[in-house]
Amino acid sequence: MSEKTPAITQATLVKKAAPKSDYKPADVSPQRRVQRSFAVRLWSVRHSRLLEWFYARFSDMFLLLHPLWKRIGYGRVEGPIKFVEKRVKGFMFDCRMCGQCVLSSTGMSCPMNCPKQLRNGPCGGVRANGNCEVEPDMPCVWVKAWEGSRNMAHGDKILDVQKPVDQSLRETSAWLRVTAQAAAAREAARNVPKPGAPA
Amino acid sequence: MIGRQPDENPAGIHLPLDPLPGHTSRGRLERVLRRGEFAVTTELNPPDSADPEDVYNRAKIFDGWVDAINAVDASGANCHMSSVGICALLTRMGYAPIMQIACRDRNRIAIQGDVLGGAAMGVANMLCLTGDGVQAGDQPGAKPVFDLDCMSLLETCRIMRDNGKFLSGRKLTTPPQLFLGAAINPFAPPIDFRPYRLGKKIAAGAQFVQSQYCFDVPMFRTYMQQVRDLGFTEKCFILCGVGPLASAKTAKWIRSNVPGIHIPDSIVKRLEGAQDQKKEGKQLCIDIINEVKEIPGVCGVHVMAYRQEEYVAEIVDESGVLKGRQPWKREIRRDDQLVADRLDHILHDEITETQVDMVKTAH
Ligand code: SF4
């Protein structure tokens, strides 16, 4: 499963052979370069219960506004909503706009920040201190997700098996998608004739 | 009469076995596990060459000691012969490979194709892994793919097998018959999530799991206790990963450089105190096997002896886990042997045979 060559790994050899110059980027990996500190992300995980509560209210509100969205046209509101969603979730969770938000099932820790983009739990490489295998100074996204989920009312959703990411939905608004789907489900439920009711 | 070994297709060693009720694959490993025998699996060190003999030579040292051989998929993100290639070679010779599929290098299109290809070549066991990050290997500049994760990969394979469909819903004309596996690491944080994660894997389709190197038996025991309480041992065969450590230095190096392998201080101390560290490492491995095989729910061991493959047979033998059973072994069949001898005789011995002589010798 894993290598056990003593002393020097192939990776160190490759790194040593790389051409030398004065410019050395300070970050560990490209992943890390697009991120700020982890403080806000970790705050969100610590307050996962509050955020869960807030999110529930928030999505109800969005659903209430469904007629409005429909009137204006989902296609037309997409732009502005996405603009807000990207900034807000980007700030709170370091969101990557995968377009199929699973924050409520992952303890409010965005799984797309995992360098392997795992959606179903931690890999086997998590370090003993709880940091990531790929980025030694980042707390493993899934260690945090587990902690966050333990605070939440519906935290056991973390045990559901998630479908693979649909890459074609990237950079779209998950808020609007969820709202439209919920509205459609509500519609469908309403159209089903009640058992016992006259046809 | 040709003496036949258990779990071998009489029509040819490279052919799949007869289907049995309740079995999802036509391979040897599933039969061994379902019969309740203590299974032994190991890992083949993949060659950096295009010579099939390299694979056969490396497989030969396990002959008669293991039930299945893992064909690793660029483990540690280092380039080697592909797992599909190794499996193609091994199945031809009748071995039971476990084809590892890592999500690091291929997307869902390539992986589903490989699953079909592997199954068509007679691979009965597939092990779904996430894979190490590219930063760990010899090509840190590679693009990490991670299109699926191990869980969705398991589910994809299960859907292909049970529903006869691709992930997209398109139909397969002949679905693959597979025994699906996954890896577990009970030794990495978040420790209390790990048992539930096994549950997730079982829900996604895992029928057997191989664990990461186990050096901390009490920790493994606690994990197994939790897993048993959750009822997972009835749904899944658990193989414990073990392996010899070459020296105390290697142990320390692994501990600080290979994420996910947990080696307690007591182990390092024991190795340091030994005269012959290599021998002690082997003994340690045997001791661990003897301890874990008694834990209820452990159905076998997975012996990983990277660059010490020659020890696998000794370790298995000395620990006595097989209890006298001999796993399938590649043997030349009597009829093939007869033909080979005869050919040898004709080609290499300087004789001119006439039919009259042949009739005479035959009588
Ligand atoms: S250690 Fe955690 S964050 Fe890092 S790759 Fe593994 S699961 Fe992802």
From TrEMBL, chain A:
It comes from the Bacteria. InterPro entries: DUF5981. Residues 81-167 form the Methylene-tetrahydrofolate reductase C-terminal-like domain. This is Methylene-tetrahydrofolate reductase C terminal. It comes from Mesorhizobium muleiense.
From TrEMBL, chain B:
Residues 1-25 are annotated as: Disordered. GO terms for molecular function: FAD binding; methylenetetrahydrofolate reductase (NADH) activity. One of its GO terms (biological process) is methionine biosynthetic process. Coiled coil: none annotated. One of its GO terms (cellular component) is cytosol. Its cofactor is FAD. It comes from the Bacteria. SUPFAM superfamilies: FAD-linked oxidoreductase. Pfam families: MTHFR (PF02219). Pathway: Amino-acid biosynthesis; L-methionine biosynthesis via de novo pathway; One-carbon metabolism; tetrahydrofolate interconversion. It catalyses: (6S)-5-methyl-5,6,7,8-tetrahydrofolate + NAD(+) = (6R)-5,10-methylene-5,6,7,8-tetrahydrofolate + NADH + H(+). CDD domains: MTHFR. The keyword Magnesium does not apply. InterPro entries: FAD-linked_oxidoreductase-like, Mehydrof_redctse-like. Keywords: FAD, Flavoprotein, Oxidoreductase. Belongs to the methylenetetrahydrofolate reductase family. This is Methylenetetrahydrofolate reductase. It comes from Mesorhizobium muleiense.
